[in-house]
Design brief:
27 helices
Length: 758
């Protein structure tokens, strides 16, 4: 990760004085381009009355005319929603608005498992058959060509309200209300579905409808659209309203989430409220969540909120179980050296695949697709990626050959395929990985002065909020920090708490899931990148930093040490001049997995540096390779040995060889890929089975017959050591194990001796 400081035009002193801005607030505004009186006035004072006229949005007046006609004529109207937080809140806004106007309004939320996302022909047919004369989509519909055509054929009008990307052809609907319609005059182009629904409500009611802003705000944050421009008004005013909400459903949901009305911020919405609404659609039918938001009775609201809470707990449990199962598959199949991951299990729960894919990417730093099989026998999945690899662009060329359905954007995708396509798709996805030529860049705001920090600092920061997409949460730097104390906490000791001191001030900083940041690595810290927040514990509130990134440097004391042993540290520090590889195949993997500058990674055979700080990043195949590497000229050498391309991490026991051979003879005609399941049955890793099979091929114990593995009749009696492949891999495995496990003093003595010889 490459960290860079934001830049901006400093606010004029008279503006700082006029708006009574603290130095921190003024600096944050300047870095976000809010540096003139009109911009400051909008940010600090704008409300819903400052929103643009709804009539500027494409087809909105036409939609309002058709809705009013349906109300006047008593036509049945059905709102066709979606099962995420945006779709749920958008549906609630439309149903509530039309209910106030006396419409015969109903709603339909697709079932994730039966109907899938967006327009569904069978659902349209049922809605039409039930007497609906006007279908209004919210947060979906722009792709519904066939569904709208069917409705038209039945003399049923449709109004599409959406915010998703346009396809080559648009539905022939009565009206298309879209915040990003080409050529329209509406000045804001990044509303979510709930934002579009709120705009229609304003037009229908001829009022700013502030009571709906809390719903539009939840959809905005939940769908991660812009919180700048009009999105700023939606979120800022929505937060103000939810903090005094009288909606029974929201009050019950907030209570169950452990939040307090009056203290809710955008982070609470993003991490506690929206996920609970999403959980309903992930595990059940999201209509339950709409019921909750529209509920007018406190007792009924609490009952529904309790059901939602139960689903949310189940969602968290399922996510963790599928996540752990995925990690086991990665290890069992030896996929640590792969650049991409396609993980399949027919028993995975479809509702949590996207969440798990995101967690896997965070853990192993590889583009990841998680697949399962639905009741109809179709394989469905979700994918996530990391900066520098566009998953949509990678998969789009593959869709004709492998996929039944595919959609997504740069960082996420959804897809479906037939089960027999999984293996070739996995290979094609891996082949699509080209790595990245540049180190991903992340920005911080400025150096944080620790002296004088107080809870008032949080208020100063919040003035530049609410934060979210297009107005990111501020990140501050603490350079050359002094670590006054270090404590590992949590049941598994996987979180770290530091007391950071500098220039007479100090701050407690917490790093979640940072167990790899050991005390050894703390001596290499150059910069900490943090967000500031409040920590409330036992009725005491204090300032706290949340660790979001680290920059390392070589400590002065280590510069006198020519060789540094860091084999047992998982962090790869980015301050070295060169990262050297014995195996060129590890190059793209090293960059994506460890966030290293690709320009600094090279095969050791290409290294000709003089006096540089260098890292031996992967494992040499043998001692000769290591000795040759130690003939180079280094200023300082770091020993890591993190990566390898070994077929197996340890040589299987003889009993494993016997079990595999016995299985081949008892089950002739299986393919190599069939042995994935065989490996699980035998309790072996798949790469161990592949290793064993290759040894057996060389020893003529088994043969291939049109890709089918068959046992050889009356095979020769030969020991495993008669296989050159067995001996070669055994030597590599033993050497790698010795290199990784050797006592530090012994390894350093050997490396230093070799360096001195040259």
């Amino acid at each position: 990760m490459d960290w860079k400081q934001r830049s901006g035009t400093e606010l004029a002193p008279e503006l700082v004085a006029e708006y009574q801005l603290s130095p921190i607030t003024a600096k944050l505004f300047s870095l976000r381009g809010i540096n003139t009186a009109p911009k400051l006035d909008f940010w600090l004072n704008a409300n819903e009355t400052d929103l643009a006229s709804p009539s500027l949005m494409h087809d909105l007046d036409k939609a309002v005319e058709r809705i009013n006609r349906a109300i006047d004529e008593g036509e049945k109207i059905t709102i066709y929603g979606d099962y995420d937080a945006d779709g749920i809140t958008a549906t609630s806004i439309m149903v509530e608005t039309l209910g106030i106007l006396g419409a015969d309004v109903h709603y339909f939320i697709p079932d994730r498992f039966k109907d899938g996302y967006g327009p569904n022909m069978e659902a349209y047919q049922r809605i039409v058959a039930n007497g609906t004369k006007l279908i209004i989509t919210v947060d979906n519909g722009i792709t519904g060509l066939d569904e709208v055509a069917y409705a038209n054929s039945q003399q049923v009008d449709t109004i599409i309200t959406d915010h998703h990307k346009f396809q080559a052809e648009l539905p022939d609907s009565y009206a298309i209300v879209h915040c990003n319609y080409p050529g329209q005059d509406y000045p804001f182009d990044d509303y979510c579905g709930a934002g579009v629904a709120y705009t229609i409500s304003r037009a229908l009611m001829q009022d700013s409808m502030p009571e709906l802003l809390e719903l539009a705000m939840i959809g905005t944050i939940g769908d991660m659209v812009k919180v700048s421009g009009e999105g700023h008004i939606i979120v800022k005013r929505g937060l103000e309203i939810i903090n005094q909400t009288e909606r029974p459903g929201l009050r019950a949901l907030i209570k169950n989430a452990g939040l307090k009305i009056g203290q809710i911020n955008e982070t609470d919405i993003g991490f506690n409220v929206a996920p609970r609404l999403n959980a309903v659609g992930r595990l059940a039918n999201a209509s339950l969540a709409v019921e909750l938001l529209l509920c007018e009775n406190d007792e009924e609201a609490q009952t529904i909120a309790d059901q939602v809470e139960k689903l949310n707990e189940e969602r968290k449990d399922l996510t963790m179980r599928v996540y752990q199962s995925c990690l086991k598959q990665i290890k069992r199949n030896g996929w640590q050296s792969k650049n991409t991951l396609v993980i399949y299990d027919p028993d995975f729960h479809e509702g949590v695949l996207g969440l798990v894919a995101n967690k896997i990417v965070e853990e192993v730093h590889k583009p990841t697709i998680i697949l399962t099989k639905n009741e109809a026998g179709l394989v469905k999945g979700s994918g996530r990626t990391l900066p520098g690899f566009n998953v949509f662009d990678a998969l789009n060329p593959l869709k004709e050959d492998y996929l039944v359905k595919f959609g997504g954007h740069d960082f996420a995708c959804g897809l479906s395929m037939e089960a027999d396509k999984i293996s070739p798709f996995r290979a094609a996805f891996e082949a699509s990985f080209k790595g990245t030529k540049e180190l991903p860049t992340k920005y911080y705001d400025f150096e944080l002065p620790l002296a004088g920090l107080s809870l008032e600092t949080i208020t100063d920061i919040e003035t530049a909020g609410p934060f979210g997409t297009d107005n990111v949460q501020p990140i501050f730097s603490i350079s050359q920090p002094e670590i006054a104390s270090c404590f590992y906490m949590g049941q598994e000791k996987n979180h770290i708490r530091l007391t950071v001191a500098k220039n007479g001030g100090n701050l407690e900083v917490v790093g979640f899931n940072q167990k790899d940041l050991t005390r050894v690595l703390l001596t290499y810290l150059d910069q900490l990148f943090i967000q500031l927040g409040k920590n409330s514990y036992r009725k005491q509130v204090k300032l706290q930093g949340i660790l979001t990134g680290i920059s390392f440097t070589a400590p002065a004391v280590s510069l006198t040490t020519p060789v540094v042993d860091l084999r047992h540290e998982k962090y790869v520090m980015g301050f070295a001049d060169s990262y050297l590889l014995f195996d060129k195949q590890n190059q793209t993997l090293a960059s994506s997995m460890y966030g290293l500058d690709p320009a600094k990674i090279m095969p050791i055979s290409d290294y000709d540096g003089k006096g540089e700080m260098a890292v031996l990043l992967d494992v040499p195949h043998n001692q000769k390779e290591l000795d040759e590497a130690l003939t180079k000229d280094y200023g300082q050498l770091y020993l890591r040995f993190l990566l390898d391309r070994l077929p197996v991490q340890s040589i299987p026991a003889k009993s494993a060889f016997a079990a595999v051979l016995r299985y081949v003879y008892q089950h002739p005609g299986l393919t190599i890929d069939d042995f994935r399941q065989v490996a699980r049955f035998l309790g072996l890793a798949y790469n161990s089975v592949l290793f064993i099979l290759r040894v057996f091929f060389e020893l003529n114990f088994i043969r291939l017959d049109q890709d089918k593995i068959m046992g050889v009749k009356n095979p020769p009696t030969r020991p495993l050591t008669a296989s050159k492949y067995f001996l070669g891999v055994s030597a590599q495995v033993n050497f790698a194990q010795e290199l990784r496990q050797m006592a530090s003093s012994k390894l350093l003595m050997y490396v230093n001796q070799q360096l001195r010889l040259h």
